[in-house]
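Q: What does the predicted 3D structure of Cadherin domain-containing protein look like?
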Amino acid sequence: MNSGDLILSERIDREILCGKKSACVLKAGLVLENPLELHRLSLHIQDVNDNSPHFNEKLIEMEISESAEKGYSFSIEEAHDADIGSNGVQRYILQANDNFILAADGSKVELTLENKLDREKQKEINLLLTALDGGSPQKSGTVVIHVTVLDANDNAPVFPQAVYKATVPENAPLKTIVVSVSATDADEGVNGDVTYQFGHMTEDVANLFSIDSRTGEITVMGTIDYEERHSFEIRVKAKDGLGLNSHAEVLIDVIDVNDNAPEIYLKSLAYVSENNKPGSTLCSISARDPDWRQNGTVIYSLIVTTRPCDESSEQLECALCVHLFLHFIYLAIK
Protein backbone atom coordinates (compact mmCIF):
# COMPACT_ATOMS: atom_id res chain seq x y z
CA MET A 1 0.00 0.00 0.00
CA ASN A 2 1.55 3.26 -1.17
CA SER A 3 -1.41 5.66 -1.01
CA GLY A 4 -1.88 5.69 2.75
CA ASP A 5 -5.66 5.20 2.36
CA LEU A 6 -7.39 3.14 5.06
CA ILE A 7 -9.79 0.70 3.35
CA LEU A 8 -12.53 -1.37 5.01
CA SER A 9 -12.18 -5.11 4.46
CA GLU A 10 -15.78 -5.78 5.54
CA ARG A 11 -18.99 -3.96 6.48
CA ILE A 12 -19.01 -2.33 9.92
CA ASP A 13 -22.15 -2.87 12.02
CA ARG A 14 -22.11 -0.32 14.83
CA GLU A 15 -24.79 -2.15 16.82
CA ILE A 16 -22.79 -5.39 16.86
CA LEU A 17 -19.53 -3.59 17.58
CA CYS A 18 -20.60 -1.17 20.33
CA GLY A 19 -24.23 -1.90 21.20
CA LYS A 20 -25.88 1.03 22.99
CA LYS A 21 -22.66 2.91 23.80
CA SER A 22 -22.93 6.60 22.91
CA ALA A 23 -19.40 6.64 21.51
CA CYS A 24 -18.12 3.88 19.24
CA VAL A 25 -14.39 3.98 18.58
CA LEU A 26 -12.15 1.50 16.77
CA LYS A 27 -8.49 1.69 17.73
CA ALA A 28 -5.65 0.40 15.57
CA GLY A 29 -1.86 0.57 15.41
CA LEU A 30 0.10 1.72 12.35
CA VAL A 31 3.82 1.00 11.86
CA LEU A 32 5.91 3.05 9.42
CA GLU A 33 9.43 2.07 8.43
CA ASN A 34 12.42 4.15 7.33
CA PRO A 35 12.34 5.78 9.80
CA LEU A 36 10.57 3.45 12.22
CA GLU A 37 7.45 5.11 13.64
CA LEU A 38 4.46 3.76 15.56
CA HIS A 39 1.12 5.61 15.27
CA ARG A 40 -2.22 4.97 16.93
CA LEU A 41 -5.47 5.50 15.04
CA SER A 42 -8.94 6.10 16.50
CA LEU A 43 -11.90 5.62 14.14
CA HIS A 44 -15.23 7.02 15.35
CA ILE A 45 -18.13 4.96 13.97
CA GLN A 46 -21.27 7.04 13.33
CA ASP A 47 -24.76 5.57 13.76
CA VAL A 48 -27.24 5.43 10.86
CA ASN A 49 -30.93 4.60 11.12
CA ASP A 50 -30.75 1.04 9.82
CA ASN A 51 -32.93 -0.64 12.46
CA SER A 52 -36.67 -0.42 13.10
CA PRO A 53 -38.28 -0.33 16.55
CA HIS A 54 -39.60 -3.72 17.61
CA PHE A 55 -41.52 -5.19 20.51
CA ASN A 56 -40.44 -8.32 22.35
CA GLU A 57 -43.79 -9.95 21.55
CA LYS A 58 -46.03 -9.77 18.49
CA LEU A 59 -49.13 -10.03 20.70
CA ILE A 60 -49.47 -8.71 24.25
CA GLU A 61 -52.13 -10.49 26.26
CA MET A 62 -53.74 -8.55 29.11
CA GLU A 63 -56.56 -9.51 31.44
CA ILE A 64 -58.25 -6.59 33.18
CA SER A 65 -61.09 -6.67 35.64
CA GLU A 66 -64.20 -4.69 34.84
CA SER A 67 -63.96 -3.31 38.36
CA ALA A 68 -60.79 -1.39 37.46
CA GLU A 69 -61.29 2.30 38.19
CA LYS A 70 -60.89 5.16 35.73
CA GLY A 71 -57.29 6.40 35.77
CA TYR A 72 -55.80 2.98 36.59
CA SER A 73 -52.57 2.35 34.63
CA PHE A 74 -51.28 -0.89 33.13
CA SER A 75 -47.58 -1.34 32.35
CA ILE A 76 -46.64 -2.28 28.78
CA GLU A 77 -43.29 -3.73 27.68
CA GLU A 78 -41.56 -0.93 25.78
CA ALA A 79 -40.24 -1.20 22.22
CA HIS A 80 -36.53 -1.50 21.52
CA ASP A 81 -34.37 -0.14 18.73
CA ALA A 82 -30.74 -1.21 18.21
CA ASP A 83 -29.92 2.32 17.00
CA ILE A 84 -29.01 5.09 19.45
CA GLY A 85 -29.88 8.74 20.01
CA SER A 86 -32.51 10.22 17.72
CA ASN A 87 -32.42 7.05 15.62
CA GLY A 88 -33.81 5.11 18.60
CA VAL A 89 -37.43 4.94 19.81
CA GLN A 90 -38.80 8.47 20.26
CA ARG A 91 -42.57 8.17 20.69
CA TYR A 92 -45.62 5.90 20.68
CA ILE A 93 -49.07 6.11 19.08
CA LEU A 94 -52.12 4.20 20.36
CA GLN A 95 -54.95 3.48 17.96
CA ALA A 96 -58.10 5.43 18.84
CA ASN A 97 -60.48 3.49 21.12
CA ASP A 98 -63.24 4.05 23.69
CA ASN A 99 -61.47 2.92 26.85
CA PHE A 100 -57.72 3.57 26.95
CA ILE A 101 -55.23 6.38 26.43
CA LEU A 102 -51.46 6.09 26.24
CA ALA A 103 -48.96 7.46 28.76
CA ALA A 104 -45.31 7.17 27.70
CA ASP A 105 -42.36 8.70 29.53
CA GLY A 106 -38.92 7.59 28.37
CA SER A 107 -38.76 3.80 28.61
CA LYS A 108 -41.97 3.65 30.71
CA VAL A 109 -45.08 2.86 28.66
CA GLU A 110 -48.52 2.53 30.25
CA LEU A 111 -52.14 2.17 29.19
CA THR A 112 -54.39 4.38 31.29
CA LEU A 113 -58.07 3.51 31.66
CA GLU A 114 -60.05 6.54 30.52
CA ASN A 115 -63.53 4.96 30.65
CA LYS A 116 -64.55 1.99 32.79
CA LEU A 117 -64.89 -1.42 31.20
CA ASP A 118 -68.17 -3.31 30.98
CA ARG A 119 -67.71 -7.03 30.48
CA GLU A 120 -71.36 -7.50 29.61
CA LYS A 121 -70.98 -5.11 26.64
CA GLN A 122 -67.49 -6.07 25.46
CA LYS A 123 -65.51 -9.07 26.64
CA GLU A 124 -62.44 -8.46 24.46
CA ILE A 125 -60.65 -5.37 23.12
CA ASN A 126 -57.85 -5.21 20.52
CA LEU A 127 -55.52 -2.21 20.54
CA LEU A 128 -52.75 -1.37 18.07
CA LEU A 129 -49.65 0.26 19.57
CA THR A 130 -47.03 1.79 17.24
CA ALA A 131 -43.47 2.76 18.19
CA LEU A 132 -41.68 5.38 16.05
CA ASP A 133 -38.01 6.31 15.89
CA GLY A 134 -36.61 9.74 15.04
CA GLY A 135 -34.50 8.79 12.04
CA SER A 136 -34.89 9.88 8.45
CA PRO A 137 -36.62 8.15 6.86
CA GLN A 138 -38.61 7.29 9.97
CA LYS A 139 -39.02 3.62 10.90
CA SER A 140 -41.73 2.05 13.05
CA GLY A 141 -42.83 -1.18 14.73
CA THR A 142 -46.25 -2.32 15.96
CA VAL A 143 -47.77 -4.71 18.47
CA VAL A 144 -51.36 -5.79 19.09
CA ILE A 145 -52.60 -5.56 22.67
CA HIS A 146 -55.40 -8.03 23.31
CA VAL A 147 -57.42 -7.14 26.42
CA THR A 148 -59.71 -9.71 28.00
CA VAL A 149 -62.20 -8.15 30.42
CA LEU A 150 -62.53 -10.15 33.65
CA ASP A 151 -64.24 -9.95 36.97
CA ALA A 152 -62.36 -8.46 39.96
CA ASN A 153 -58.64 -8.87 40.24
CA ASP A 154 -57.87 -5.50 41.76
CA ASN A 155 -54.29 -5.82 42.99
CA ALA A 156 -51.15 -6.16 40.88
CA PRO A 157 -47.98 -7.82 42.22
CA VAL A 158 -45.70 -5.37 44.03
CA PHE A 159 -41.90 -5.56 44.26
CA PRO A 160 -40.48 -4.22 47.56
CA GLN A 161 -37.81 -2.39 45.55
CA ALA A 162 -37.67 -1.04 42.02
CA VAL A 163 -34.02 -1.98 41.44
CA TYR A 164 -32.06 -5.05 42.54
CA LYS A 165 -28.25 -4.95 42.45
CA ALA A 166 -25.97 -7.98 42.38
CA THR A 167 -22.46 -9.06 41.42
CA VAL A 168 -21.18 -12.24 39.79
CA PRO A 169 -17.58 -13.28 39.01
CA GLU A 170 -16.78 -14.07 35.41
CA ASN A 171 -16.60 -17.81 34.67
CA ALA A 172 -19.04 -18.48 37.52
CA PRO A 173 -20.21 -22.14 37.50
CA LEU A 174 -23.51 -23.00 35.86
CA LYS A 175 -26.57 -22.73 38.14
CA THR A 176 -24.81 -20.20 40.39
CA ILE A 177 -27.54 -18.12 42.07
CA VAL A 178 -26.97 -14.45 41.25
CA VAL A 179 -29.93 -12.82 43.01
CA SER A 180 -33.54 -13.57 43.98
CA VAL A 181 -36.43 -11.22 43.27
CA SER A 182 -39.75 -11.35 45.03
CA ALA A 183 -43.13 -9.68 44.60
CA THR A 184 -46.29 -9.94 46.67
CA ASP A 185 -49.93 -9.71 45.64
CA ALA A 186 -52.65 -8.73 48.10
CA ASP A 187 -55.25 -10.83 46.28
CA GLU A 188 -56.03 -14.41 47.24
CA GLY A 189 -56.15 -17.62 45.25
CA VAL A 190 -55.30 -17.50 41.57
CA ASN A 191 -55.48 -13.69 41.65
CA GLY A 192 -52.54 -13.61 44.06
CA ASP A 193 -50.50 -16.42 42.46
CA VAL A 194 -47.30 -14.63 41.34
CA THR A 195 -44.98 -15.95 38.63
CA TYR A 196 -41.79 -14.40 37.22
CA GLN A 197 -40.28 -14.01 33.77
CA PHE A 198 -37.69 -11.90 32.01
CA GLY A 199 -38.69 -8.88 29.98
CA HIS A 200 -37.03 -8.03 26.67
CA MET A 201 -33.45 -9.19 26.41
CA THR A 202 -31.05 -9.92 23.56
CA GLU A 203 -30.36 -13.53 22.63
CA ASP A 204 -26.80 -13.50 24.00
CA VAL A 205 -28.02 -12.33 27.43
CA ALA A 206 -30.91 -14.84 27.38
CA ASN A 207 -28.31 -17.59 26.95
CA LEU A 208 -26.43 -16.47 30.08
CA PHE A 209 -29.21 -16.22 32.70
CA SER A 210 -32.47 -17.94 33.62
CA ILE A 211 -35.16 -17.18 36.17
CA ASP A 212 -37.23 -19.64 38.16
CA SER A 213 -40.85 -18.76 37.40
CA ARG A 214 -41.97 -19.72 40.91
CA THR A 215 -39.14 -18.61 43.22
CA GLY A 216 -37.72 -15.65 41.30
CA GLU A 217 -34.15 -16.97 41.57
CA ILE A 218 -31.88 -15.76 38.76
CA THR A 219 -29.10 -18.23 37.97
CA VAL A 220 -26.13 -18.50 35.60
CA MET A 221 -26.80 -20.61 32.50
CA GLY A 222 -23.79 -19.76 30.30
CA THR A 223 -20.18 -18.59 30.38
CA ILE A 224 -19.85 -14.99 31.59
CA ASP A 225 -16.76 -13.17 30.30
CA TYR A 226 -15.81 -9.82 31.83
CA GLU A 227 -13.71 -8.96 28.76
CA GLU A 228 -16.84 -9.21 26.59
CA ARG A 229 -19.27 -7.42 28.92
CA HIS A 230 -18.85 -5.69 32.29
CA SER A 231 -22.49 -5.49 33.39
CA PHE A 232 -26.06 -6.52 32.59
CA GLU A 233 -29.38 -4.75 33.03
CA ILE A 234 -32.33 -7.15 33.08
CA ARG A 235 -36.02 -6.36 33.45
CA VAL A 236 -38.05 -8.85 35.46
CA LYS A 237 -41.84 -9.13 35.19
CA ALA A 238 -44.05 -10.37 38.05
CA LYS A 239 -47.51 -11.47 36.92
CA ASP A 240 -50.44 -12.68 38.95
CA GLY A 241 -52.86 -15.42 37.91
CA LEU A 242 -55.16 -13.11 35.97
CA GLY A 243 -52.65 -10.94 34.15
CA LEU A 244 -51.90 -7.90 36.31
CA ASN A 245 -48.17 -7.31 36.35
CA SER A 246 -45.35 -5.06 37.50
CA HIS A 247 -41.66 -4.79 36.69
CA ALA A 248 -38.33 -4.42 38.49
CA GLU A 249 -34.82 -3.82 37.16
CA VAL A 250 -31.92 -6.15 38.01
CA LEU A 251 -28.43 -4.64 37.65
CA ILE A 252 -25.64 -7.24 37.59
CA ASP A 253 -21.97 -6.20 37.71
CA VAL A 254 -19.39 -8.75 36.53
CA ILE A 255 -16.26 -9.13 38.68
CA ASP A 256 -13.04 -9.47 36.71
CA VAL A 257 -10.90 -12.58 37.25
CA ASN A 258 -7.26 -12.78 36.16
CA ASP A 259 -7.94 -15.42 33.52
CA ASN A 260 -5.95 -14.07 30.57
CA ALA A 261 -2.20 -14.10 29.95
CA PRO A 262 -0.59 -11.18 28.11
CA GLU A 263 0.05 -11.57 24.37
CA ILE A 264 3.13 -10.25 22.56
CA TYR A 265 2.82 -8.36 19.28
CA LEU A 266 6.14 -7.87 17.41
CA LYS A 267 5.68 -4.64 15.45
CA SER A 268 8.96 -4.85 13.52
CA LEU A 269 12.11 -6.98 13.31
CA ALA A 270 15.31 -6.06 15.16
CA TYR A 271 18.36 -4.95 13.14
CA VAL A 272 21.69 -4.43 14.94
CA SER A 273 24.90 -3.21 13.31
CA GLU A 274 28.29 -2.27 14.72
CA ASN A 275 27.67 1.41 13.89
CA ASN A 276 24.41 1.75 15.80
CA LYS A 277 24.44 4.89 17.90
CA PRO A 278 23.35 4.90 21.53
CA GLY A 279 19.61 5.41 21.81
CA SER A 280 18.89 3.89 18.37
CA THR A 281 15.58 2.08 18.05
CA LEU A 282 16.19 -1.62 17.38
CA CYS A 283 12.64 -2.89 17.25
CA SER A 284 9.10 -2.19 18.39
CA ILE A 285 7.29 -4.66 20.63
CA SER A 286 3.84 -4.39 22.19
CA ALA A 287 1.93 -6.58 24.62
CA ARG A 288 -1.71 -6.61 25.61
CA ASP A 289 -3.64 -8.24 28.44
CA PRO A 290 -7.44 -8.17 28.05
CA ASP A 291 -7.99 -8.34 31.82
CA TRP A 292 -9.03 -5.18 33.66
CA ARG A 293 -7.01 -2.74 35.74
CA GLN A 294 -4.48 -4.52 37.98
CA ASN A 295 -5.21 -7.90 36.39
CA GLY A 296 -4.30 -6.40 33.03
CA THR A 297 -1.14 -4.55 34.11
CA VAL A 298 1.85 -5.49 31.91
CA ILE A 299 5.44 -4.88 33.01
CA TYR A 300 8.32 -5.13 30.51
CA SER A 301 11.95 -5.97 31.32
CA LEU A 302 15.00 -6.38 29.06
CA ILE A 303 17.64 -8.98 29.93
CA VAL A 304 20.98 -8.67 28.13
CA THR A 305 23.28 -11.77 28.14
CA THR A 306 26.71 -12.36 26.60
CA ARG A 307 28.69 -15.45 25.57
CA PRO A 308 32.18 -15.97 24.09
CA CYS A 309 32.64 -16.32 20.31
CA ASP A 310 32.90 -19.82 18.98
CA GLU A 311 34.97 -21.02 16.04
CA SER A 312 32.05 -20.73 13.65
CA SER A 313 31.87 -16.96 14.14
CA GLU A 314 32.59 -15.00 10.99
CA GLN A 315 34.18 -12.17 12.99
CA LEU A 316 37.14 -14.11 14.43
CA GLU A 317 38.81 -10.91 15.58
CA CYS A 318 36.00 -10.16 18.02
CA ALA A 319 36.66 -11.28 21.53
CA LEU A 320 33.03 -11.40 22.59
CA CYS A 321 29.70 -11.94 20.81
CA VAL A 322 26.84 -10.00 22.24
CA HIS A 323 23.42 -11.56 22.10
CA LEU A 324 20.30 -9.77 23.15
CA PHE A 325 17.51 -11.83 24.49
CA LEU A 326 14.28 -9.93 25.00
CA HIS A 327 12.38 -11.44 27.83
CA PHE A 328 9.05 -10.02 28.82
CA ILE A 329 7.95 -10.68 32.34
CA TYR A 330 4.26 -10.17 32.88
CA LEU A 331 3.05 -9.50 36.36
CA ALA A 332 -0.67 -9.40 37.02
CA ILE A 333 -0.72 -7.39 40.22
CA LYS A 334 -3.63 -8.49 42.38
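A (community wiki): The C-alpha coordinates above were generated from the sequence. Residues 313-334 have pLDDT under 50 and may be disordered. The helical segments are 14-18, 203-206.
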